[in-house]
Amino acid sequence: MSRVYNFSAGPAAIPDPVLGRIKDDIPDWNGTGMSVMEASHRSKAFVAVAEKAEQDLRQLLLIPGEYSVLFPQGGATMQFSMVPLNISAEGDTVDFVQTGSWSKKAIAEARRYCAVNVVADSADQNFTYVPDQDSWLHSEDAAYLHYCANETIAGVEFPFVPESGETPLVCDMSSTMLSRPVDVCRFGVIYAGAQKNIGPAGIAVVIVRKDLIGNAREMTPALLDYATYDAAGSMSNTPPCFAWYVASLVFEYLLAEGGLEVIGKRNQQKAGKLYAAIDASDFYSNRVRVDYRSWMNVPFVLADASLDPTFLSQAEEEGLVNLKGHRSVGGMRASIYNAMPEAGIDALIAFMQEFERTHG
Amino acid sequence: MSRVYNFSAGPAAIPDPVLGRIKDDIPDWNGTGMSVMEASHRSKAFVAVAEKAEQDLRQLLLIPGEYSVLFPQGGATMQFSMVPLNISAEGDTVDFVQTGSWSKKAIAEARRYCAVNVVADSADQNFTYVPDQDSWLHSEDAAYLHYCANETIAGVEFPFVPESGETPLVCDMSSTMLSRPVDVCRFGVIYAGAQKNIGPAGIAVVIVRKDLIGNAREMTPALLDYATYDAAGSMSNTPPCFAWYVASLVFEYLLAEGGLEVIGKRNQQKAGKLYAAIDASDFYSNRVRVDYRSWMNVPFVLADASLDPTFLSQAEEEGLVNLKGHRSVGGMRASIYNAMPEAGIDALIAFMQEFERTHG
Fold first, then answer.
1. Is A84 on the interface with B (CB under 8 A)?
2. A192 and chain B: CB distance < 8 Å anywhere?
3. Quick check: bond before A27 cis, omega within 30?
4. Per-residue confidence of chain A (360 residues) as pLDDT tens digits?
5. Active site residues per annotation of A
6. Does B237 contact A4 at a Cβ distance shorter than 8 Å?
7. B75/A238 touch (CB, cutoff 8 Å), yes or no
8. Is the CA virtual torsion B224, B226, B227, B232 positive or negative?
9. In what order do the strands lie in the sheet with B297-302?
10. Where do the domains of chain B lie?
């Protein structure tokens, strides 16, 4: 099959030019006579990759010097444990906003280490909005305030960065990091699994304010302590070199495309087109309140759900794949991360309109 | 540069046919229209990879049904924490054999969770042998007995599997797993980081007797609990799909080569040739006692250490790379895992003999 438009929620599409580089680099990477998978993480060639990855990420996100950039394994889920182990002490209370499945999972893990205060919860309307911050019930003395910037399942996104005062703000940015500019200074910790906009699964990016490093609880496993990564350039043990290298190529690609202002505009444009097509039809609908609609994950349902299997199989024949919604909500979901070109959105909309004409 | 002979201790060489498959599979893997990096871990295509990886590994190592096979992230170093958290309770004593740097690191992490009794220690002779088991001072009631089958830095290897009676035997097999047959039934837990004989860094293999799963300490982070992986086929969260896929290709390759009996004979032959060449010369020497010499990592020193830089640079010109010994011991080290062909050994020996003729 020729390349498809891959609407997977993650692991997700990787930009074609990056895939081309990866292919070219096997089995001889930059004249080393080996692939990057075979290079020692201590080799000059690989250390240069790691350093460039950090530099480029700092440039993309304008990360200030008082923040460290760490590349641990275990994805965002490992951060669900690492954040409370590193940023809170026994007996602490932590504040969480609950806006969907991912914040729920983060809360469940944090509860094992802290008292969790849910400051706001949108479960009352099936996680289709973000409660106004005016209504949030903050703790007196929370160790941190945690939220998930974008919930991939319901497709609901924070259109604002919460105010947290002196309380460190912690954000699971797995599905939005690098999709647009962000003001890093507002945060204590930003973390993201790679497999949406960064690279292949198997590596995470953690951006953490340096003063929050070095306070891990006594029994924290060595590889769950931010200080371990900070002290060793994320190479205290053998890192996931290949995933790190691909992330580095992605960062380079994003810079070459013009950086996150450009990327953000593209993403807004792509999402806007798709939501407009959905809203213009009675055949399709999206349940998320307009202000909180995700730029990254666009769920939609057909008025007649019995047509779902036909929709999915015909879409697949057209090279539009992985459109099935998450099993917990059904319907469809188009995940349209950075690597999805506008042509993919156009092809999806054209298919949806044709499907509606035939089956509407 | 054309392909080199890569003697890296890890990440290490990957078999050429496996690299060829990886290259061919970009950007269209098995007619899916995407690379494996972009496929959902829940997709049929990827689930088939994961299942085949386990089946092939079970066939290679003859893993009995009462053992689970897990694929966590974090390499062997994460297992240094996971083993005590899963296989011991607070207040327990655990037994360790100390035969080099890797067992020392495992001991340091275990001490944070248990009382560690070092049953035997070869530090007295610079870790150049394994103490006879007759001399070991076992605890009365250890939760487990841990050893490292092969120490990559000094190049010292256990030529036997220790007797542990009813005590679960735990082995760090990072640098020997899949290099020869092993009797899995002797063990409670076998673990290995991938980046020697299994695949790229970023995934580990843990083979654990099922009765040892489900007893993790209360505060164990979710992704450090063997039960999390066992319950979800190692997919409770997004796994390191690409590394898993490469491991699967390596397993398939090893089966096609004839399995571990064949591979083991080849490795013994390769190591035997290289040690014979070293022993036949006064110009080179290996300090490890003959019975404990590693088949995987062959350190050697030049009689005149001032020639080391010349040796290394001339070797590199001949396409023999990564021969520098670990900084803690100096000299040279040839790591000759499965992917190193006998032709690479022959080329190294020919170079060594020529170098001796010129500089001896």
1. no
2. no
3. yes
4. 588 999 999 999 999 999 999 999 999 999 999 999 999 999 999 999 999 999 999 999 999 999 999 999 999 999 999 999 999 999 999 999 999 999 999 999 999 999 999 999 999 999 999 999 999 999 999 999 999 999 999 999 999 999 999 999 999 999 999 999 999 999 999 999 999 999 999 999 999 999 999 999 999 999 999 999 999 999 999 999 999 999 999 999 999 999 999 999 999 999 999 999 999 999 999 999 999 999 999 999 999 999 999 999 999 999 999 999 998 889 999 999 999 999 999 999 999 999 999 998
5. 102, 172, 196
6. no
7. yes
8. positive
9. B284-285, B297-302, B332-335
10. 25-256, 259-359
What residues of chain B lie within 8 A of the CB of A250, using their CB?
Answer: none
What CATH number is given for B25-256 in this structure? 3.40.640.10
Catalytic residue among B56, B95, B102, B225: B102
B40 CB near a chain A CB, below 8 Å? yes
The residue of A4, A40, A316, A326 whose CB has the most chain B CBs within 10 angstroms, and thus the best one to mutate to test that interface, is: A40
CB-based contact A32 B1, cutoff 8 Å: yes
- Stated length of chain A: 360
Cβ of A101 under 8 Å from any chain B Cβ?
no
To the nearest whole Å, the CA of A280 is away from the closest chain B CA by 30
How far is CA B246 from its chain centroid? 16
B window 261-320, beta carbon within 8 A of A: 319
Long-range CB pairs of A22-25 (<8 Å, 24+ gap) are A22/A246, A22/A249, A22/B26, A22/B35, A23/B23, A23/B26, A23/B27
- The CATH number assigned to the domain with range B259-359 reads 3.90.1150.10
Distance in angstroms between the alpha carbons of the first and the last residue of chain B: 30
Task: State pTM to two decimals.
Answer: 0.98
Return the CATH architecture of domain A27-257: 3-Layer(aba) Sandwich (3.40)
Residues counted in chain B? 360
Provide the CATH number for the domain formed by A5-16+258-359 in this structure.
3.90.1150.10
Tell me, what's the ipTM? Answer: 0.97
Q: Which residue of A has its CA nearest to B218?
A: A112
